[in-house]
Amino acid sequence: MKSKRFPLSTFLFLLLSAVSYSQDKNIDNYYQHAPFKMPKVVVPVFADKNFSIKDYGAVSDAKILNTTAFAKAIDACTKAGGGKVIVPAGVWLTGPIELKSNVDLHLDHGAIIQFTKDHSQYPIIKTGGSGNSYAPASPIYGYDLTNIAITGDGIIDGAGDSWRPVKKGKPSASQWNEITKTGVLSKDGKVWWPNEEAMNGEEYLKTLKQKTNKPTPEDYLPAREYLRPYMLYLVHCENVLIEGITLRNSPKFVFYPNHCNNLTMDRVSVYNDWWAQNGDGIDISACKNVVIFKCNVNAGDDGICMKSSGNKGNGAELENVLIAGCTVFRAHGGFVIGSNTDGGMNNIYVRDCNFIGTDIGIRVKSNAGRGGLVKNIYVDNITMKNIVHEAISFNTYYEDVPAGKEAKDVKTTATNKVPEFTAFYISNINCDAAKQAISIVGLPQQPVHHIYFENIFIKADKGFESVDASDIDLKKVSIISDKPIYNTHGCKNINIHE
To answer: Would you say residue 303 lies in a domain?
Structure first.
């Protein structure tokens, strides 16, 4: 196919049109135009009662721990039938905060919840998942709750820099020199750890597993520094609203809801340093009926990511997701699916988003051993600029590589839970610069199939490459590249339309 060259003025018009179109739309517009029947997400409503943390002994001096004051205010609020727990302007140092039903944790303008770097304040608790799994308590967490919210103009800082390892190749030389003034280095000097307990935690857990199959919370204490918590962790919660706030500096993933129903994120800012190990921004895991609207993300790993595990045989575990008007800056991917997809995914609608400087723009990844059926994915009207690698990537050989490991150390030979990517509709994509336009890598036993591209413009060093794919439809796809535009292997039914 001969590539088409768009005038610069035309490309700028498309970019500006995409931005203005997004600004003019509200959530209801996206419900109306969703390509599937998107259920109206229930937004929680709270009683008109206020409970200020100051009335329960909180002190804003960034020195005194306010853990007890937060707990008392939240407890009083939920016992009174619900309402708002008010965090006034100021810096409020605290340990973990456990949310409760019918509580809106509201941060006034100028309020900062600063989580402590004293990790002894994070007890080892049972996580909200199945089985006997333990981890340090997350800075903010809630299990099996109904009607909860975190709202306002304030900032929540998870003190993540006191938890996370850092790979030498990620920060600049000057940043690396500053980081390594404290903590310890791995033997090869390639990974900085905050302390020896964090660095040795993996080996300790291997030894613990050999000793007992029923470890206690106390058994995990020597590995607490290694077992970093998620920052905002919600499990089996219903009717959740996260609105207006800034979430930053997470020990691990910033926001990680699991098996939640009716979840809304509205105008939330998420920030992790781009070298933050496992510093994902928004990871939606096995949830149903989700709206992510006008959120901004800068992350050390994936930006806005869909995950799904534990299929119970009742259809997809992740279903009915609307993502609109969002911007992702530095991240491993702008909109991401995977890597764990074995729970299945269905009905995801991504519209009017910008990916600026991400490693990959649209990133779909999984591998044998944690894959499942992912279908009915609609991505439309996306603007990308300065994409480091692929603008669009499908990868069924993805390997998650921990700090200090290499891909060759973690290769899987699994033959079950094979990922299947099908019925993707990707349209109206404008990418100003990328290393590669489109890459599709399927499995010989399960090709990536029935992927539909329409109205695509990408300027990239390399064009379209596919391996083990079938029924790929490209309509009005323009790739500007100095190298051959199309390269396929082991594929069939690659259809190109002018």
So the answer is: yes
Answer positive or negative: Cα dihedral of 182, 186, 190, 192: negative
Task: Name the residue among 401, 393, 474 with its Cα closest to residue 435.
Answer: 393
Global pTM value? 0.92
Contact 255, 281 (CB under 8 A): yes
Query: What is the distance in angstroms between the CA of the first residue and the CA of the last residue of the chain?
Result: 8
Q: Is residue 212 part of a domain?
A: no
Q: What is the pLDDT of residues 280-307, one digit of tens each?
A: 999 999 999 999 999 999 999 999 999 9
> How high is the pLDDT of residue 416?
82
Q: How many domains does the chain have?
A: 1
Q: What is the CATH number of the domain that holds 368?
A: 2.160.20.10
Cβ-proximal residues to 264 (8 Å cutoff; 6+ apart), any chain: 41, 43, 240, 241, 242, 243, 290, 291, 293
Annotate 201-235 with b (16+ C-beta within 10 A) or e (fewer).
Answer: bbeebeeeeeeeeebeeebbbebbbbbbbbbbbbb
pLDDT number for residue 131: 57
